[in-house]
Amino acid sequence: MGFVRRKPVRLATLQSQLEPHQSLIEYVLDEKGSYAIEMNRAALRIYPLPARSQIGKLSRSFVTAIRSGADSAASGQELYKQLIEPIVPAKPLRSSSCRTDRCT
Q1: Domain of 61?
Q2: Phi and psi (nearest 5°) for 101?
Q3: Closest CA relative to residue 47, chosen from 73, 70, 26
Q4: Considering Cα of 55, then 61, then 66, then 67, what sign does the dihedral take?
Q5: d(CA 94, CA 38)
Q6: Given the DSSP bridges, would you call strands 44-49 and 23-28 parallel, antiparallel or unpaired?
Q7: How many Å apart are CA 22 and CA 15, to the nearest integer?
Q8: pTM of the model
């Protein structure tokens, strides 16, 4: 089965389909440096990340630990620190209420 190339979606179209509380994050990995692109209804932000080789090394370490049954906490935390935390910094926990379609 071959790769199907589709026409790119315009940013405004994508943003209009997101709910006010939603964001979409796309990762672009490259050897010189990688990026996370966060899009929400109001803005687009670009966050610098480590090079593809460094992310690959962290990912392999995490997967290897999981597959071998070893403690994966340290490698998982490092992967989180490099890929997620730059976009969503640690925030204090807050109480939430949930319905079937949404948590607040």
Answers
A1: 11-83
A2: -110, -5
A3: 26
A4: positive
A5: 23
A6: unpaired
A7: 10
A8: 0.73
DSSP H or E stretch at residue 75: helix 73-83
Counts of helices then strands in the chain (DSSP H, E): 3, 3
Q: Is residue 78 part of a domain?
A: yes
Please indicate, yes or no, if residue 30 is contained in any of the structural domains: yes
Tokens of 46: 């670009």
27 belongs to a structural domain: yes
Confirm if 44 and 38 have CB atoms less than 8 A apart. Answer: yes
Structural domain count of the chain: 1
Residue 98 lies in a domain: no
The backbone torsions φ and ψ at residue 92, rounded to the nearest 5 degrees and listed phi first, read: -60, 145
Q: 16-74 pLDDT, tens per residue?
A: 999 988 989 999 999 999 999 999 999 999 999 999 999 999 999 999 999 999 999 99
Helix-helix angle 52-68:73-83, to 10 degrees: 150
State the Cα–Cα distance between residues 76 and 72, nearest whole angstrom. Answer: 6
Higher-scoring residue by pLDDT: 5, 59: 59
